[in-house]
Design brief:
This protein is of the alpha/beta class. Helix content is 51%, strand content 14%. A 6-stranded parallel β-sheet has the order 3-2-1-14-15-9, with helices on both faces. α13 links the parallel β14 and β15. The longest helix has 29 residues. The N and C termini lie far apart (88 Å). The relative contact order is 0.11.
Length: 519
């Protein structure tokens, strides 16, 4: 259509202006970094044990740390509720499998408060309707891509691991992990996943991501495993033999193999594949595609998380995980792995009842090795509690706050914060957490605690105040600043205690009761 010259000039200038000067609302839009972290999903065939607590506490520390770094964090955990192990256990109790898991799942949900976990923690169950639909959709996509087929076979199956075991995994005729459980011989026609086709793609992924698995020793282990060649693995069971599972699409005679079902939770938890199509926020795009999906797991999950799951994602045409962090085992005093099947577990609930949440969080973060096996005994726990919490941190807090209150000295919080940022004193601490080495980070904090205690011993401001009050008050102010700094460093690890210390500093009060009463 014909327009006057002035109209064309005005229209063009308007378009140019929109490109050069954004709308006021555009200026308010900020790019938020996203971070996704998840635990594995524990089986609900028994009470939560210390191994569960260790994994989820460490994951919570990382989630809290990332939030402090300005990330929008999605933190996921939950329960794995299908499989032969749970099916058998339910009938031991005279319950249906659904009744059994409904009862036990509450014990795992309660860990959120018991372990002081983040308020926005997401909890997924593999019996959730949306997860079941997502697992079936994942199966359909892999089948459409020709990575699923059916064949008869015979295998040796470990009920404890819910995993096929080959000769390399067997010691004394049993699974090397569950030496107290007989292997089950299964002979039937099942569906298989074409794992063997992913050797080269997996090795290429490992080459592209030199820190894909942490620590390096575990990464070396999985690379050697894949390099030796991969075998296709079964992903279904006959329903007549094991009916407790998600139905295989288009085949009513089979249910999904528990691992194939459960691994999909990492993406079903963030709305894959239905939320976007239903007009809901696309959390999968935000946290998995554009984020940094990170998975914590035990070393017995190394193959499933860093090879099997990654191949499954490739088969479905989805992006791979960003990083897999591998925990060691907690061993009992006799050196054996602490596990439900061996009956040598320690209850985190009982520890928290006697010592408090942050005492357990401290022990997990500092006293247990971040990647290798660590021994646990109540004697060792009590010794660490008294030495480093009751006599260490707790005593230091009481001494400094008492001196501040008695001499009317307050903490200049703005000065402390600006000084910390200027000197960047916590680089060692930051780098350790980014590498998931929580012990090194906590050791850094305890060096600050010990340095503050040494400063009190050397300067003795409680005596100096009688002869040189201004100098004494200056030292006390410095100590309050250092205590404030320490409490900030502790906030991802022992958040309840850190918050108490910060509140006491701000109000200038001495704690009425010890933060950690001696046991």
């Amino acid at each position: 259509r014909w327009r006057p010259l002035w109209w064309n000039i005005w229209t063009i200038s308007k378009k140019i202006k929109s490109l050069v000067w954004p709308k006021p609302t555009d200026k308010l839009k900020t790019v938020t970094k996203s971070f996704y972290i998840t635990t594995t999903l524990p089986y609900v065939n028994a009470e939560p044990h210390l191994g569960h607590a260790m994994e989820i506490i460490r994951t919570d520390v990382i989630a809290r740390w990332k939030k402090l770094q300005g990330y929008e964090v999605f933190f996921n955990t939950g329960t794995d509720e299908h499989g032969l192990k749970i099916y058998q256990k339910a009938f031991d109790f005279g319950e249906s499998p659904q009744q059994f898991v409904d009862r036990y799942v509450e014990k795992f949900k309660n860990l959120k408060d018991i372990l002081g976990l983040s308020n926005d923690l997401n909890f997924i169950r593999t019996t959730d309707a949306h997860h079941i639909k997502a697992a079936q959709e994942f199966w359909k996509i892999c089948a459409q891509h020709d990575y699923i087929y059916k064949k008869p076979y015979k295998l040796k199956y470990c009920v404890g691991c819910e995993l096929e075991r080959t000769d390399i995994d067997i010691e004394n005729g049993r699974c090397f992990i569950h030496q107290n459980i007989d292997l089950v011989i299964i002979e039937e026609e099942n569906y298989f996943f074409k794992f063997s086709e992913f050797q080269k793609p997996l090795l290429a992924l490992y080459e592209q991501r030199p820190d894909f698995v942490v620590p390096a020793e575990r990464f070396k282990e999985i690379k050697l495993f894949v390099a030796r060649g991969l075998q296709d693995f079964s992903i279904s069971r006959l329903k007549e033999k094991m009916p407790w599972g998600i139905a295989v699409p288009n085949d009513s005679e089979h249910v999904m193999y528990v691992w194939f079902d459960a691994l999909v939770n990492y993406i079903s938890a963030i709305g894959w594949p239905f939320d976007k199509a239903q007009g809901k926020p696309d959390l999968f795009e935000k946290f998995w595609v554009n984020g940094t999906p990170t998975q914590y797991c035990g070393k017995d999950n190394l193959r499933q998380q860093s090879a099997m799951w990654q191949a499954m994602l490739m088969a479905a045409g989805l992006p791979n995980s960003k990083q897999i962090v591998i925990d060691g085992f907690i061993t009992a005093g006799d050196g054996k792995k602490m596990s439900k099947s061996l009956g040598n577990v320690v209850s985190p609930v009982e520890i928290v009842k006697e010592y408090g949440t942050d005492a357990l969080r401290y022990f997990v973060a500092r006293e247990l090795h971040p990647f290798e096996d660590s021994s646990f005994t109540m004697e060792r726990f009590k010794e660490a509690y008294n030495a480093n919490l009751a006599n260490g941190l707790g005593n230091l807090v009481s001494r400094i706050l008492k001196m501040g209150e008695q001499n009317s000295v307050t903490c200049n919080i703005k000065l402390v914060t600006s000084d910390r940022n200027k000197k960047n004193k916590e680089r060692q601490y930051q780098e350790a957490i980014e590498k998931y080495d929580l012990k090194v980070a906590m050791d850094f904090v305890w060096e600050k605690i010990q340095a503050a205690d040494k400063k009190i011993q050397e300067t003795q401001p409680f005596k100096l105040v009688k002869t040189e009050p201004e100098k004494a008050r200056a030292i006390i102010a410095e100590l309050l600043g250092e205590l404030y700094y320490i409490s900030e460093l502790l906030s991802p690890f022992i958040p309840e205690t850190a918050e108490k210390i910060l509140d006491l500093i701000k109000t200038g009060q001495t704690p009425t009761t010890p933060l950690f009463p001696r046991k």
